[in-house]
Amino acid sequence: MKFPISEATLVTYPGPVPTEVDVVVIGAGVIGVCTALFLAQDGHKVALLEKGRIACEQSSRNWGWIRQQGRDPDELPITAEANRLWRELAAQTNIDIGLVQGGVTYLAETAEEMETYANWLPHAKTHGVDSRLLSDAEIAQVFPGISRRFAGALHTPSDMRAEPWVTVPALAGIAARAGVTVVENCAVRCLDREAGRVSGVVTEAGVIKTTQVVLAAGAWSSLFLRNEGISLPQLSVRATVAATHPLPHLSQGAAAAENVAFRPRSDGGYSLAAGGFHELFVGPDAFRALPKFLTQLKQDPFGTRFLPKAPKGFPDAWGTKRKWKGDAPSPFEEMRVLNPLPNQKKLTDLCRDFAALFPQMGDVTLKTAWAGMIDTMPDVVPVMDRVDALPGLTIGTGFSGHGFGIGPGAGKVLAGLVTGADVAHDLTRFRLSRFSDGSPMDIGPSV
Ligand SMILES: NCCCC(=O)O
């Protein structure tokens, strides 16, 4: 994958690792970076450890949408807070992260979809989010030149966008200036425990003593937890994204139609993807988690296709180690950066469908394309919780493809869970125990 090189990504964090901190955050994606940042701004001594580079996985590979629209009602207040925090964070960095309030629009094919959107609007109103329905005529005003008619749309003017690959390293820069010790190329192999609670982490560069660990490891979280004896029914799906060459200006906003979602990019092109197209590599975790995912698979909100086996070294590949100790390399060192290949046919389809929707684009050609592994939970909302069975461990994972936009809000929540501060949100929906079935591998730490 070729990313645009920015000032932010040229900064590297070689270490060394500290010997003792108040909190270790595992994983420097948007969730881990924001959690570390807010903890440091609250006066805590924090180490943020990343096995590869900052935001080298899904946090740089997502669509760049900062979306409140259509969110699960329990996530919505956190995304509304994130919307405010994004503006504050953009003002704390001298790097242009491409933050633009251009709105997000869902184009509806059917009256049934419009009814679903209408039924969601009261949630937006409750949290002061400015979502509204658009008629077909209004759609043409927002997206001039659109070639076909729709049943209507859901539109949220206050939704935003930013350039993920520039943004998350820029946020890491703010965190580093706030005192976070950021270390790249440093895998955490496992946890240390004393008297049934967290006492440190074993990294490839030595042990760090700490009493608080936040696991924000995206697609790797469930593998890490399994080795700790904690079951998390999390899977990851491959999502293909493309960046076009510069094309005519359309609108400042991002939108999703049935076959193609698009966002204007800072470089004059568009990021293209398809919301209803995700691919699951079938491995042992997929079989294990199947019963918990059955409802989701029946409704199929992901438009999931199945691929026979994951590439070597992927979290749910058949040959990936499930058990290891701290004295030898872990699977996280064997694959520093999860870099799936994009689906070539989907790339062709995206160009065709975008050009058909907006004929003024002419020939749509791609500057680059990539894929990412989206970590997802059976109910498509994240886990943000302390692990009751292992005091000192907090989990922030399973953001199900929506983690970029909610990132700063989730970071505030996770920092609050660590410090015991009032997070001012009802977190019941995000509890780890919602997956509990009482089996031996179920949320209890192995000792
Ligand atoms: N996988 C969807 C990414 C963007 C969003 O819905 O916020």
Structure explained in plain terms:
The protein has one domain: FAD/NAD(P)-binding domain. It has 12 helices and 21 strands. Helix content is 29%, strand content 22%. By secondary structure, the protein is an alpha/beta fold. Strands 4, 5, 6, 13, 14, 15, 16, 17, 18 and 19 form a 10-stranded mixed β-sheet that branches. Strands 8-2-1-12-21-20 form a 6-stranded mixed β-sheet, with helices on one face. The chain starts with 6 loop residues before the first helix and ends in a 28-residue tail after the last helix. The model is unreliable at 440-447 (pLDDT under 50). It binds gamma-amino-butanoic acid. Residues 62-63, 65, 67, 275, 401-402, 405 line the site of gamma-amino-butanoic acid (ABU). Gamma-amino-butanoic acid binds at residues 62-63, 65, 67, 275, 401-402, 405.
Count of DSSP helices? 12
Quickly give the structural class.
alpha/beta
The CATH superfamily is FAD/NAD(P)-binding domain
Largest sheet: 10 strands, mixed
Bound small molecules, which ones?
gamma-amino-butanoic acid
EC number: 1.5.3.19
GO molecular function: 4-methylaminobutyrate oxidase (demethylating) activity; D-amino-acid dehydrogenase activity
Organism: Ascidiaceihabitans donghaensis
Protein name: 4-methylaminobutanoate oxidase (Formaldehyde-forming)
